[in-house]
């Protein structure tokens, strides 16, 4: 029987954005977790920034990455809760050409096993803009770990079957 040879891994070009009014880059364990995880998997970190929770600043930074040929994936941590300063969904939705509804749904489903009904307070979301996949997750390191290990690690690997996001991002 002829088996197809496994595909060669194609590293994605990823930017990480932490949205926080209180953390510094040195204290940003969530962003650092994402950076460490993506590089351990063989992906390329293109840029990393930490900004305050401001709708227009988030849109500005993310729009620059969306316009760049160098960034295929944006990982955003923080600003997805219900406090008055949590505005990541409001900042990102207008930028999306198409929303990835399943990301938020699956994130809440898998996080239910960890935090129970508190998962309903997560406004995790994702979408595509100009061939760039944008994934927004809560600001806790545990939430980033859940998103990475249970969703993103496989979905950002071109070898994952039956499907993954790599064919949908700009080359």
Automatic annotation (TrEMBL):
Question: Which keywords has UniProt assigned to this entry?
Answer: Molybdenum cofactor biosynthesis
- Superkingdom: Bacteria
Q: Which Gene3D superfamilies match?
A: MoaB/Mog-like domain (3.40.980.10)
Pfam families for the chain: MoCF_biosynth (PF00994)
- What InterPro entries does its record include? MoaB, MoaB/Mog-like_dom_sf, MoaB/Mog_dom, MoaB_proteobac, MoCF_biosynth_CS
Coiled-coil features, chain-numbered ranges: none
Extract the PROSITE patterns matched here. MOCF_BIOSYNTHESIS_1
Pathway membership: Cofactor biosynthesis; molybdopterin biosynthesis
Keyword Glycosyltransferase set for record: no
Q: Which residues form the MoaB/Mog domain?
A: 15-159
What NCBIfam families does the database record attribute to this sequence? Answer: moaB_proteo, molyb_syn
Q: What does this protein do?
A: May be involved in the biosynthesis of molybdopterin.
Family classification: Belongs to the MoaB/Mog family.
Name of the protein in its database record:
Molybdenum cofactor biosynthesis protein B
């Amino acid at each position: 029987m002829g088996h197809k040879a496994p595909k060669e891994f194609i590293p994605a070009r990823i930017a990480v954005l932490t949205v926080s009014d209180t953390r510094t880059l040195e204290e940003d364990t969530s962003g650092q977790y994402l950076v460490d995880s993506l590089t351990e998997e063989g992906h390329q970190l293109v840029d990393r920034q930490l900004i305050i929770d401001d709708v227009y600043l988030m849109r500005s930074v993310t729009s620059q990455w969306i316009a760049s040929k160098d960034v295929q994936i944006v990982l955003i941590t923080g600003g997805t809760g219900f406090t008055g300063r949590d505005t990541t969904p409001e900042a990102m939705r207008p930028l999306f050409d198409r929303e990835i509804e399943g990301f938020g749904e699956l994130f809440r489903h898998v996080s239910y096993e960890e935090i129970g009904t508190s998962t309903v307070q997560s406004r995790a979301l994702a979408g595509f803009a100009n061939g760039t996949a944008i994934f927004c997750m809560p600001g806790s390191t545990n939430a980033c770990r859940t998103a990475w290990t249970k969703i993103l690690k496989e979905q950002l690997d071109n070898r994952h079957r039956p499907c993954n996001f790599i064919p949908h991002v700009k080359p």
